[in-house]
Amino acid sequence: MAVDLKWPILGIIIPCILIASLGYGSHYFVFRKHMAVDDQIRFQVYLTMVWVSYVLAIVTEPGSPPKNFEPNQGEWRRWCKKCNNYKPERTHHCKTCNKCVLKMDHHCPWTYNCVGHGNMPHFIRFLGWVIFATGIVLVELSKRVIQYYNDSDLPSYLIDKSEMIAVIFLLPVDFFVLFSIIILLIRCVKDFVFKGMTQIEVWEMDRIESQFHTERMWTQIRNNYFKLHGKEMPRLTSWNRPDRYYEVDAREHDSLQENGEEQERVQGSSNDNEVSAVPQEFTIDDLIFPYDRGIWSNLVDSLGQPWVWLWPWGRPKGDGYHIEKTEFIDEDQLGLPWPPDGGHQDVAVEEPDASSMVIGNRTNIKLLKKRLDPRSTMKRSEWMNDSGETLDDFGVDVEAEDTDDELIVRSR
Fold first, then answer.
1. What range defines the domain where residue 132 resides?
2. How far apart are CA 125 and CA 185, in angstroms?
3. What confidence tens digit (pLDDT) does each residue in 313-365 have?
4. Which helix (H) or strand (E) holds 298?
5. What's this model's pTM, rounded to 2 decimal places?
6. Computed from CA positions of residues 263, 249, 259, 213, in that sequence, does the dihedral angle turn out positive or negative?
7. For the chain, how many structural domains are there in total?
8. Among all residues, which ones are annotated catalytic?
9. Chain-centre distance of CA 70, in angstroms?
């Protein structure tokens, strides 16, 4: 995701050179000789749409919170130290744009702009038009390669050398661009469509999953729950308890039964909160992400109504700082704003040693691997996902990310 360019303007120049080379180079050297006039005109229309969507992705603001914004009750009270303003949900301060960005997805070096609420449709349209146009180029250039192979027995003077050189140069470049943009589009679309998440929120969920087993995270969550609800957090239960019971495999389960320890664990689990802050019957799958409203609603929230998806100036739904929640939010056992720990790592709790992972005569290997992962004790500003990405790699100004967030407590 992260590309650090010495001169940021190269992030605009390089795509422009690629678009012009592939579009106009292919047309001049190949299409005008082998493609019907109507098809050439249509291709130029598609190429124009690439330029239009690209320019709009560059110049359109992703949106920033209004001055003197005040969070609602039950939300994180997140103060931006650099904008001197409260940040709405899903908002982050971009280190490059030097401003808070509504529903920030990432900072894109190739548009020299943040991708957020206001310009996500332009960014997705740009990717879509690039894939469509480069797909046409790939097909047409591949036809020429096949023709060269079929004409391999002909004298060389019958083959247009300039055209062949152009095909040899442009075909691999086109394939590289097409493949790269497809990967980027899939990564963006699958997350905000199927999960309702931005790239930063996917990273945040991975962080929570990585530290889900730690005493420190759950101590912080319990503190947040008490602050918001004014009572101790109740016992959490899993929606799929039989399949996820204590995260032990079938062999460990059988071993416990053979040793007569299973019944003891079940009886003792009712007081698990007194022994450990980590719930014994609650998994990462039981967390309800509050902004996942279903595939269709996620699409509309990010790209607007379907009749504006191809319209160059189509806008997303909403204002970007009054966020609609999932209809299942009432089933959330935590009832905390996202993320439930607030990104806090300010509690000092001693983590259990390896002996706590011994069940009967066996060791919980899965939990042992999690505890041995150094990321389980990393602060949010340092944590990285499996791809090695940190918040900084998405463009987030880590220094501006407030570590003293507070909850606005509901009136009781």
1. 1-210+292-327+383-412
2. 10
3. 888 988 888 889 998 888 888 888 889 988 766 666 666 655 555 555 555 66
4. helix 295-303
5. 0.84
6. negative
7. 2
8. 108
9. 26
